[in-house]
Amino acid sequence: MRRLLDGHEEGQPLQLSQLRAALGNAKARLAFLALEEFGLVVDDTVPTMRRWIDRQVDALPAGYREEAAAALPHLPPTPACPSGRER
Prior knowledge:
- By secondary structure, this protein is mostly helical.
- It has 2 domains: about 1-40, no CATH class; about 45-75, no CATH class.
- It has helices spanning about 1-5, 15-25, 25-35, 50-60, 60-70, and strands at about 15, 40.
- Strands 1-2 form a two-stranded parallel ribbon.
- α2 (about 15-25) crosses α3 (about 25-35) and α4 runs antiparallel to α5.
- It is elongated.
- About 5% of the residues are buried.
- The mean pLDDT is about 80.
């Protein structure tokens, strides 16, 4: 953490992606929570669901991509399978 802060421009918030690269996910999350209280960090990451949607939409023909990318986040959750696991 000290190495990350030493090379950082004063007055500029750190980015969560920088914390993850330097500390790993678990430690970065703790650091994020501590630094967030003081406004010293911003979450610049893309949500997992958004990344999944982007990957799925990339496989579609060009004419459908934008419409599908806009619609997918608003679909209702899938009901659980009979086995109890989500689909």
